[in-house]
Write a structure and sequence with these properties.
The chain has 439 residues and is an alpha/beta fold. It contains 14 helices and 16 strands.
Length: 439
């Protein structure tokens, strides 16, 4: 093959490769697109933030025309909310937040996520608002810190609303005054873009809408597209269930008692394994929910006081202190804020505190009874027993006590057959006296 022929051959291969790549790009461009739907029906926490990130990644891989986030949330953590907002703004895929189904809400952190979306919609019978920040770590905030947090959240809400062309004044009032709107009021006040009774209706309504993503303008083409749902996987569902104050509290209590039983009965293994796993899961939940660890320390102190009651006779003082510490710790573990999802149920607290009190009261009672019970074995077990003199003697002689022959010493003469009472023991010699002797 000549040099010219080789050049022609390589040129032909190059042209063919370019043609194949062009055809593939054209085919990809012409391939039917889809709408990816993710659902968040829980509080906003690190787990839901990670789930949204996975959903956005799924939508980007599929080159989806739109990612719809169906949302029903009471609110959540500021850090998780900001992570979700950043993901929505950063992705090149248009994101619609759809507050649904009827009866759902976008409260607190959910308001800012809705404001950050490219398309905001609500189903009939839903509401949005009440975004005033609260402290979830217990203990509350002083006035200066509370004002700083409020100003920061209000500025953030206004910034998001202005960026998406929505009602910035209402966004600020939702933070400062905890105002809420129905879906009709939200549409009228330019907080949302559409009211849609169903997902299919929403896709039909947004078709042809122009949105801005970064510096680009995108025209949505969603009518008639296939819908692919991206539900939470098993991992996210499990972790999401742990992000519940009641579950965190129960796991922590099980963990503490499991470790206690293992230390009380070394080698039992099972209580230690269950307690260790539960305690680790409980710590994960506490971290996820930004719990107040002063509450946890009070609960741990309560358990220590209960254990000391078994060892030290305080006539119930340590038990009472343990009950007070456990109750206060349970109340302090999560702040009793306006959001119900941040509180431990009173029923759960009552059951756990009651069970703890009942258990340790029973243990203390049994321990006291065992210490007050008359010994039945050893030298002490013979004291007070009644026996018979087996011979006449003065000073030392033989007696029959508890089915055994003993050498006994008595301060008065005894006759064979006399009943004697054991007063004590000196080595292998019993100290006795006549049964009816006057003292």
């Amino acid at each position: 093959m000549t040099k010219r022929q080789r050049q022609r051959f390589f040129l032909s291969v190059l042209i063919l490769g370019i043609a194949v790549l062009s055809l593939r790009a054209f085919a990809a461009a012409e391939a039917p697109r889809e709408v990816v739907v993710a659902t968040i029906a829980a509080s906003i926490n690190p787990v839901t933030a990670d789930y949204l990130s996975s959903a956005i990644e799924k939508a980007e891989e599929a080159n989806a025309a739109l990612l719809v986030l169906e949302m029903d949330t009471p609110g959540g953590l500021d850090s998780a909310m900001r992570q979700m907002v950043q993901e929505i703004i950063k992705t090149k895929i248009p994101v619609a937040v759809y507050v649904s189904p009827s009866g759902a809400r976008a409260a607190s952190a959910g308001v800012l996520i809705t404001l950050a979306s490219d398309v905001a919609a609500m189903a009939p019978g839903t509401n949005i608002g009440a975004a005033h920040p609260v402290s979830v770590g217990g203990g509350g905030m002083d006035n200066t810190m509370a004002k700083k947090v409020e100003n920061d959240a209000a500025a953030y809400a206004r910034s998001l609303a202005e960026k998406k062309g929505r009602n910035a004044a209402w966004a600020e009032s939702a933070v400062r005054e905890s105002t809420s709107l129905t879906e009709k009021d939200a549409l009228e006040k330019n907080v949302i873009d559409f009211i849609a009774p169903s997902l299919s209706d929403l896709l039909a309504r947004v078709d042809g809408k122009e949105i801005r993503k970064g510096e680009a303008t995108i025209v949505l083409r969603t009518k008639g597209l296939a819908v692919t749902r991206y539900p939470m996987g098993l991992r996210h569902r499990i972790l999401s269930s742990l992000a519940d104050p009641n579950i965190a509290y129960i796991l922590m209590m099980i963990g503490i008692y499991g470790i206690f039983f293992e230390l009380s009965n070394p080698g039992a293994v099972f209580p230690g394994v269950v307690g260790g796993i539960s305690l680790i899961l409980g710590f994960y939940s506490l971290q996820t929910l930004s719990a107040n660890y002063a509450g946890f320390l009070l609960i741990a102190l309560a358990v220590v006081l209960f254990i000391l009651e078994v060892k030290v006779h305080s006539y119930g003082a340590l038990t009472i202190g343990g009950i007070v510490a456990m109750l206060l710790g349970s109340l302090m573990l999560f702040r009793a804020s306006a959001d119900p999802w941040l509180r431990i149920s009173w029923g759960v607290i009552a059951v756990m505190v009651g069970a703890s009190v009942l258990f340790f009261t029973t243990v203390v009672t049994l321990a006291v009874r065992s210490q007050l019970r008359k010994p039945v074995t050893g030298a002490e077990g013979l004291i007070g027993e009644t026996g018979d003199a087996m011979e006449d003697f003065t000073g030392e002689g033989k007696v029959f006590v508890s089915g055994e022959w003993w050498t006994a010493r008595c301060g008065v003469p005894l006759k064979k057959g006399d009943k004697v009472t054991v007063l004590g023991r000196d080595g292998m010699t019993l100290i006795v006296e006549p049964k009816n002797a006057r003292r």
